[in-house]
Amino acid sequence: MSIPVIDLEGSLDVGGSGAARVANALAQALSTLGFAYIRGHTVAPATTAAAFAASREFHASSLAQKQSLAINAFHRGYMGMATSTIVTSSVARVTQPNMSESLMVMHELAPDDPALRAGAPMQGPNQWPQWLPDFKPRMLQYQREVDAVARHIVRLIALSLNLPAHALDHHFERPTTFLRALHYPPQAVGPDDQFGSAPHTDYGIITLLAQDDSGGLQVRPRAGDWIEAPPMADTFVLNVGDMLARWTNNRFVSTPHRVINRSGGDRYSLPYFLDPSMDTVIECLPTCTDAMNPPQYPPVRYGDYLMERLNKNYNYRRTAADGEP
């Protein structure tokens, strides 16, 4: 089995026949494998290149500089090597931490944003490396462009589910977004349960991943073995998250994936996660159920689901929850 390629060209008018054609192809990919390569998108190659360059510059900074941006209670900032263990994985018993480091940037909020001022969960300030003045503008530009693609894909998903193209837009008026600048060092042969990123499924709606030329991403289809998701020039890797699987009553598949960096060099990737507002209640969409196919999950508030996963999988949150220094 190979990962299908979906070309967005001709789909920008969500009311046109081109959009319907692409939506059908997208639905086929997401209901069988849960993964697809996306090409024909609107993110400029120069924007992606600049974001990767910024990530490499950040990770080449001293450990003291990076640790000065230690991840805060709003899940923004630097996560050091081996500080996350995916204990909530439904596809493997994970005992070893991920061999990666990253800087997490979430949705940017204005200083006078009411949720920020109230200290609401996940509504806090991003942390930027002031010693790299080009980092913030490069990352924000990348975030803007990839977010536009992600929102377009959500509209194509709505069409594929026999909903109006903009039927889901209101859930993303105050979205929860994550842009993660990831670095995986070279990984020698070691324990079977040591990964750059252990087998897992994503929490939310969709992920758009830009990866460098190192390879290492693997996907496990249903009732199948692991397959490679090799780099493909000027594409994103799209995958379904757990919340979209629940929203669609498992019509779309949240597929396990992992990273093993055997390239012999450093690996960099830029996953972007587009999720709904924290208050969105995820329950079976009306076109995904009928008398023969009742809802398989109870409704769940996205923010509650997210916080449970974060609290279990990240060292800094478990430490805080235990009341340790």
Mind explaining what this structure looks like?
Residues 175-276 form the Fe2OG dioxygenase domain. It catalyses: 2-oxoglutarate + O2 + 2 H(+) = ethene + 3 CO2 + H2O; L-arginine + 2-oxoglutarate + O2 = guanidine + L-glutamate 5-semialdehyde + succinate + CO2. Keywords: Ethylene biosynthesis, Iron, Metal-binding, Oxidoreductase. Helix 1 crosses helix 5 (135-160) and helix 2 (45-59) packs across helix 5 (135-160). Strand 8 and strand 9 form a beta hairpin. With 325 residues, the chain is of the alpha+beta class. The chain has one domain (5-322): Sandwich (Jelly Rolls), CATH 2.60.120.330. It contains eight helices and 14 strands. The chain is globular and about 60 Å long.
Oligomerization state: single chain
Instruction: Show unreliable segments.
Output: 320-325
CATH superfamily annotation: B-lactam Antibiotic, Isopenicillin N Synthase, Chain
Number of domains: 1
The CATH class is identified as Mainly Beta
Helix content: 25-40%
Brief digest:
Its EC number is 1.13.12.19, 1.14.20.7. With 325 residues, the protein is α+β, with helices and mostly antiparallel strands.
SSE diagram, text form:
Elements: E1 5-7, H1 17-32, E2 35-39, H2 45-59, H3 63-67, E3 77-79, E4 101-106, H4 114-118, H5 135-160, E5 176-184, E6 197-200, E7 206-211, E8 217-219, E9 227-228, E10 236-240, H6 242-247, E11 257-259, E12 267-275, E13 281-282, E14 300-301, H7 302-313, H8 315-322
Parallel strand pairs: 1-2
Antiparallel strand pairs: 2-10, 3-4, 4-5, 5-12, 6-11, 7-10, 7-12, 8-9, 8-11, 13-14
